[in-house]
Each structure stands twice: as structure tokens, then as C-alpha cells.
Amino acid sequence: MTKTKDEFRTTLGRNIFFQKYAHNSNDTWSALSNRLVKDVCEGILDESSCGEIEDLIGWKKFIPGGRYLYYAGRPLHAWNNCYLLKGEDDTREEWGNLLKRGSDCLMSGGGIGADYSVFRPRGSTLGRTGGMASGPIPLMHSMNEVGRNVMQGGSRRSAIYASLNWQHGDANEFLVAKNWHDMPVGNSGKSLWDIKQEDFNYPCPLDMTNISLNYDDDWLNLEERHRHPTFLKNVYQALRTGEPGFSFNFGNKQNETLRNACTEVTSEDDSDVCNLGSLNMAEFDSLEDFRNAVQRGSEFLVCGTLRADLPYKKIYKVREKNRRLGLGLMGIHEWLLKRGYRYQMNPELATWLLVYQQESEKAANALCDKLSISRPVAYRAIAPTGTIGILAGTTTGIEPLFAVAYKRRYLKNGTRWHYEYVVDATADQMIGEYGTDPNAIDTAYSMSRDPERRIQFQADVQDYVDMAISSTINMPSWGSKENNEDTVEAFAATLSRYASRLRGFTCYPDGSRGGQPITEVPYEEAIKHKGVVYEENQEKQCNSGICGI
Fold first, then answer.
1. In this structure, are 207 and 300 located in the same domain?
2. Of the chain's two ends, which shows fewer C-beta atoms within 10 Å, N or C?
3. Residue 534 bridge partners (DSSP)
4. Can you list the alpha helix ranges (DSSP code H) found in 248-325?
5. How far apart are CA 344 and CA 458, in angstroms?
6. If you average pLDDT over every residue of the chain, what do you get?
7. Residue 156's pLDDT is what?
8. So what's the pLDDT on residue 411?
9. Statement to judge: residues 387 and 421 lie in one domain
10. Is residue 4 part of a domain?
11. DSSP tag of 390
């Protein structure tokens, strides 16, 4: 049977298309591709280039960010996934202004990232009133509550990021702001973390917000930077709870403290905007085809900077000044698997990444010069591609396969937890078509006990990316042999060695987040029970632990 553009590699990918992006039940992926290119590129690029981009999107070789997909063919062109904000003045007026900018962005359909370092620490004297400053953390909580009550563009859950300089007077308080493990719930004997395991939507402090500390040259130049108390505490918290993350801003990037919600887009300008699209490396067999796709993808994103609707005037000015592009990659691990490579840098991958680096700049600059508009200040960022990676049916962003096989946990009818056994689509193809040994495939789980390999790979790829990479390093659970209080300093030293080559870093200790949706299981077990769904409360009643529904 001949493959068509409208086929999806997985049922989940097809379901997501109809749930999130289709205009009606008769809509098709190829129709979406057509109307998206018309909206973004028609009248700017020639007919041939438009046709090439439509084919790339149609065959899922290049997929723009989710906001592009959602608004394709709609009157509003709110194509930008996220906005980057910062407190510009340490005044009470700026509190209100920042909240207003944040809510405007969230309501337009974009997530937000905000840096709060300008606001004075809690307890500082207020000059005008003689009172005491409350510090930036209550403002973060206020923004979190705005996010809780705003569906982005009326269609999806808000995404928020908050950062603070590592030398800020409230850094220690910030480090433990999401210590749900230590926050009791009344007299229940349970912590907020316990409740979050049972009900992912249970409101907790900063639960809509990812948080990170910003590290600059002052930290980098310390003789034993990995032993600085703030950094060590950051590492301790990250290994225990998954947050805060680490934002690294050194040298000529020192002022680029602003991040979008997933941290891959960086800037020093308030009201900057991300503009994302990702190439599916797994779909390219030829380097020349990949080169052409890099060129067309870059041109598409340039067009997006000319036609996207934005929530307020300042963003238009900043966009025109920076024209920031975020051409990214996904399917990197699948590309490696198809060629028999391990999850690490190799000469062939380096060659492809060099093409990605050089051609993205060359193509974008050429189009900007032709149109007599400003050139971009940045061209590449690797997003997590969670949703669009599922649409493409490939490994997301730079991430390895989470697991060859896993048990997916989800709420059915919003009330009862269920499980389903799943074999990863990419792994299934590698095993079925390429004869790959399932036990020989690198996964996030298998590499969790060797985190340095993942850190090094992220650093190696970062060499070709001028903004940042969104990557979460999986770790064993806190309290395990490989992740405990005795391993903190050694991990801090490892992270410190690579810090100068990274732009950001996030840990995910197993079980650290509320309601973890997927858990690794042996491949043989998943094959035996593939597609079986069972109710969680029945597990204790069944000898096998598997009760079919």
C-alpha cells in the first residue's frame, strides 16, 4: 500500500491531530499543510518554494510549532508559542505591568517565561513608604495563579517559566519554593507531593511554573564553583525534586537570561518572542535533502516574523529588532538508531549538524536581504517537540527514547486511573524492520545511571545551536544507590565541567513529579499485554497485576 501524507505513524498521533488541530472531523493533515503555507508564505516566497514547504510539512519532515498548526486557516494568526518577559524596574508599578503583559500573552495562546531578578529581596526597605519589600517570589505566585485561570488562547493549559539570579537575596527561598515533599496538607499526614501523585491537577505552589536559577560569569569564574553553597543546594534540590533547573549565561550571552516556558529560546530583551519549527531528521536519508529542508524551514520562520499577530505593541518592535528564529530538530535519536549509532556524537552527525548550522543562517539572511528587512539575531533552538514529535511519530527533540516499552497511566472519564501497555513506535520499527535487539537500544531509563553521557551529548549538540536546547536528564529516584545525598557533590562537579558549553540544564528524578504518566516495563511484558487496559484499583486484586477492561 502506498503511503499518503494523511497517514500517521501512531494512533496517538492521529488522535492528537483531530483533538487539537483539525477544524472538523473531515479535515486532513494535507489540507492543514496547504492552508498553513498560504497563511504564512504566500506572496512572500515564490510558488516553487511554497510548494516545497507544503510538501515538507505534508510528509512530516518539517513541522512548525503547535501554535502555527492550531491557527492555520483561522482569522487570528497567533503563531508564536511563547513570549519572554522580565521585570524592567524595581517598582510596584512594574509588578502590575508584568502581570498585565503575562496575562495578555497567555490569553493570546502563548506561554511565558519571566526573569524576576530586578526586584529587591524580601525584607528590603521601601524608600517611598518605609515599609518592607515582599520580594519577587509572591509575584511569581501571582503569575502562577493567572496561568491557572487562563487557558492559552482558550484552548490549552498555560505554560510558565520563572528565573532568578543565583546571587539574588531570595535565591535560597527560591530554591525550595516547590518543595512539595515538605509541605503538609492539614492533619492528613500527607504532603502536597503525595496528593499530587493522586491528583495531578491539585493546586500547589508554582505548579504551573518551571523554575531555574540564572548563573553568570561571576559563578563561572569561581575557583571551585561546583562547591559554592547556592550551586550545591540547587543540585541537591534538582536531584531530589527535579527543580529548580539551571540557566547558564556566560561571555557574550551573559545578558540572555530570559527564557521561554521550555527554556530553549533565549534573549536579553523584554517582550521578545519565540518562533519555532522543527525538522524531523529521521525522515531524511540524504544530506542534500536535509540541506534543502533547512533552507526552506528557515525561510518559513522568516515569513512568520512578518505576518504573526502579537498581543501588544512592544512585541512588534522587539520582533522587528531581533527577528529571532528557532529552527529546531527532532528525531535525532531515531536518526542515530537507523544508522546503528549509540546515543552520542559521531562524525556523520557532526556533518549534518554543521549543515544545519550554516544553511539556517545563510538561507534566513538571504531572504531578509532580498526583502530589505533586518537579519535575525539568532537562528536555532531545539524545542522539546512533545506534541509535534508525536504527530511525526518520532523521538522528541534531542531526547532519547524514554523507554522501549512502558506502562502509560491516565485518567479515564476524569475520575479513575487506568494503565495501558505501550511499545514505543520508533523502537517497534527498529525491532521489526531493522532487527534491532530491544535490550540494546539506549533509552532515557537505561542511561539514567550514566547521566554524564547524556550531558555530554547535549553539550556536543549545543555547539551547533546559537540559542538553547530543551532537554531533561532522567535520573534514578531520590534515595536510590545512584541518587542520594552522598552523590550530590560528585554530580555538581560533573555538571560544572560541562556548564560552559551548555545554556540550560534540567533533571528529572524518577517519580519526582506528580502523577508520573509513564513507567518503563520489560519489552517482553509489554508485548504480552500490548493494548491491554486495566483499572488501577484492580491491581491489588489480581495475581498478575493486569486486569483487562
1. no
2. N
3. 419, 548
4. 287-307, 313-322
5. 9
6. 90
7. 54
8. 63
9. no
10. no
11. H
